[in-house]
Amino acid sequence: MEDVDVAIVGGGVVGLASARAIAKHGLSTCILERHPRVGLESSTHNSGVIHAGIYYPHGSLKAKLCVKGREELYRFCEEHDIPYAKCGKLIVGLRDEDTTRLEQLARQGCKNGVEDLILVSRDFIHNREPAVDARIALWSPSTGIVETESLIKALVRTIHADNIYLLRGTKVEGGDTRNGLIELSTIQERILARVVVNAAGLYADELSMILGGEHFKIYPVRGEYAELVPSACHLVNGLVYPLPDSSGHGLGVHLTRTTWNTVTVGPTARYQSAKDDYEANRLPLTTFHKSALQLIPQLKIDQLKYGSSGIRAKCNSSKEPPADFIIRRDAKIPTLIHAAGIDSPGLTACLAIGQMVAELVKETLD
After folding, report:
1. Is the pTM for the entire model greater than 0.85?
2. Which of 112, 144, 205, 346 could form a disulfide with 63 if both were Cys (CB 3.0 to 4.6 A apart)?
3. Which DSSP string do the residues of 157-221 spell out, in sequence order?
4. Nearest alpha carbon to residue 183 among 330, 37, 173
């Protein structure tokens, strides 16, 4: 039996960032990660976009933590030599009526604290993205991209420096609460923690049930990508987005130039039952081509190839409105803290989420 102040279940960016913030309070901390490496799921299977904070409902955790986390993430990248670029983003309008929606987005972003948004005309768009055919766009200069693998490695270096135990290949098989403590059982050992942080991503609902906590459901949503072939990558210089999907479940298939100068097309958004199925029934390239043509009319289908895929952890079904992050104490077990349902903009907000989790831990133990 090992005793710690805080056990964090999940070694993605949220778990790692939470551990880093918790350690600053002088608490003994360990991370349990089911995979042999950290960051193998949503943390590195995404667009790598550092979001400005435009889309999210005012006052929501997504809005507040995105705006706060964005600037902290840029500073962290600078301090730890993580490849990133504050390249800006164009959200383009293709029809006359899109002007109204872009203006609404600008007002929404401003309410959230994104104060540098500008409506721009065709000349501005053409100067930045000559291949994009759009008459008006919303320009977000504080949006950027980050190399997620390097971010994960930097977070791991910082937690090692803080003497945090990182237990890879360690899946939580069971748990129990006794005398105000939570006992976690793995194949290798048992860990007795004063507080447990549930940062288990796609499996956060299952962990809560294992520990006897409240019931909520995580819905796996697969996002698939195509890529431009190398000879076509010159067609995109930065980030180009359509107006967001009217369902609210995604930002639409967009074009992202990565820090290593490839260009991704995606992601799509499709609800599925499996939490680990990244490849079955992949969408045809024609699906990506149809979406990309709205942004780059001259793109040929033979200029596309298949890319990666990822699975987002959402707290809402396809029939429900988008849900906010769950970052709070469990209603049944006050020493269990959830950081669940962390879909977009979770990568951008990870350091701010970690700080919020650390404050909840400190309040719980005080």
Report:
1. yes
2. 112
3. HHHHHTT-EEETT----EEEEETTEEEEE-SS-EEEEEEEEE--GGGHHHHHHHTT-----PEEE
4. 173
Taking the chain (366 residues) in runs of 10, the rounded mean pLDDT of each run is 94 98 96 97 96 97 98 98 98 91 96 97 96 96 98 97 95 92 95 98 98 97 98 98 78 94 96 96 97 96 98 96 97 97 98 98 96
What structural domains does the chain harbor? 2-44+149-217+322-365 (3.50.50.60), 85-143+219-314 (3.30.9.10)
Taking each continuous run of H as one helix and of E as one strand, the counts in the chain are 8, 20
Here the tokens at position 80 are 């730890």
How does strand 144-146 pair with strand 84-85?
antiparallel
β-strand partners of 295? none
